[in-house]
């Protein structure tokens, strides 16, 4: 059947062109991460926030600091790059996260990026570095995002 006449192909093209699956995956990841008492109100708030943010990432520096703290229950002050990559895979979807990490590594000086470490279980990130590198990957994954850092997002609000 002609792809232009195939309703499934048209639906798939629509969903892909508007990044609907990525948006829903991100919302679901945030919902499961936060586990709010009122999921519907939480999702509405996140969608309103996304609309107001335009092309900026849905998570801000404060969210990433909270995420780091949750991944560091012993209070050691660091998490592994593997933990950061798992968080990104949950938030963005595995393939999209891997592409964004690869893009961040390619843009990094000398191609060295903490999340692209050969041994992500050994690479450690303190809270500030976690916010910086995870924020960088989220910005690279955000379509039409013109920010260079999450600090720019704070300044734009």
From TrEMBL:
Lineage top rank: taxon: Eukaryota
UniProt cross-references to PANTHER family, sorted A to Z: EF-HAND CALCIUM-BINDING DOMAIN-CONTAINING PROTEIN 10
Record's protein name: EF-hand domain-containing protein
UniProt source species: Raphidocelis subcapitata
């Amino acid at each position: 059947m002609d792809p232009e006449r195939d309703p499934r192909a048209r639906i798939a093209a629509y969903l892909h062109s508007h990044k609907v699956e990525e948006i829903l995956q991100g919302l679901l990841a945030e919902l499961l991460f936060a586990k709010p008492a009122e999921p519907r109100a939480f999702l509405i708030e996140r969608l309103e926030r996304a609309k107001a943010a335009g092309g900026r990432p849905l998570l801000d520096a404060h969210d990433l600091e909270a995420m780091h703290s949750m991944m560091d229950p012993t209070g050691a002050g660091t998490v592994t790059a593997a933990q950061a990559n798992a968080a990104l895979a949950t938030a963005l979807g595995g393939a999209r996260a891997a592409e964004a990490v690869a893009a961040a590594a390619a843009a990094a000086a000398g191609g060295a990026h903490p999340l692209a470490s050969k041994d992500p279980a050994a690479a450690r990130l303190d809270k500030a570095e976690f916010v910086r590198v995870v924020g960088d990957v989220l910005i690279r994954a955000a379509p039409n995002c013109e920010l260079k850092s999450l600090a720019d997002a704070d300044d734009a609000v």
